[in-house]
From TrEMBL:
Keywords: Cytoplasm, Gluconeogenesis, Glycolysis, Isomerase
Functional summary from the UniProt entry: Involved in the gluconeogenesis. Catalyzes stereospecifically the conversion of dihydroxyacetone phosphate (DHAP) to D-glyceraldehyde-3-phosphate (G3P).
InterPro entries (alphabetical): Aldolase_TIM, TIM_sf, TrioseP_Isoase_bac/euk, Triosephosphate_isomerase
Residues at which substrate binds: N9, W10, K11, G169, S207, G228, G229
GO MF annotation: an example: triose-phosphate isomerase activity
Subunit structure: Homodimer.
UniProt name for this protein: Triosephosphate isomerase
PROSITE patterns assigned to the protein according to its UniProt record, in alphabetical order: TIM_2 (PS51440)
HAMAP family xref list: TIM_B
Gene encoding the protein: tpiA
Amino acid sequence: MRRKLAAGNWKMNGTPASLDEVAALAAAQPAPACEVLICPPATLIAAMARLAGRGPVMVGGQDCHAAAQGAHTGDIAATMLRDAGASHVILGHSERRADHGEDDATVRAKTRAAHAAGLVAIVCVGETEADRDAGRTLAVVGAQLLGSLPEDATAADTVIAYEPVWAIGAGRTPTLAQIGEVHDFLRAELTARFADGAGFRLLYGGSVKPANAAEIFAVANVDGALVGGASLKAQDFGPIVAALSAAPS
Ligand SMILES: O=C[C@H](O)COP(=O)(O)O
């Protein structure tokens, strides 16, 4: 039985006033039947973790360095995220891969660091539109999965997010059949490689909104979502959490 996860990625958005959205979300969804996570900018993690307290909302980071400490100006260590109150960290998001040149080996090293710090790593994979048009989707996400996960990853410390790059912030999503095809493929790859591969949570990400959440969550092997824009406001993220709570298990 995989526990469903609604994860919000605020990306480079949010001010201290945005913490009101976490309070509003917790008030609207005080006892969701799924895990709820928000990954704000690093500047807000500690305050959000204090605010979230023992409520239903967990807090995560959006990236960490592969090293435990040292001369890495502007970076943040996994242990620093944990010390600030984070329980999870997003790694290998396509915006990190594109903006910062992160490759699979880098993501794998960061995933190891996250695990060493006791964080759950949410490892992102996803094809570009050119990949999909060329029929390379499964080859691309399969290679990313293989290269980004350490051999000792487990279902307890690692979550996979499938995010087609062309659907992120675009207002368009793959068809349900396309989502299902990739998630089934990822499940098969995980099951072939890891003893507990059937237990890894698989999130879909890319233009998840209140209007399309329920139909996406009904797709087999979709165990939740990694939500960008629609996670910023409780009035949008709340209904997504509710849809996931009500989704078939
Ligand atoms: O990490 C989240 C994804 O990039 C999805 O973003 P989006 O929901 O704004 O399309």
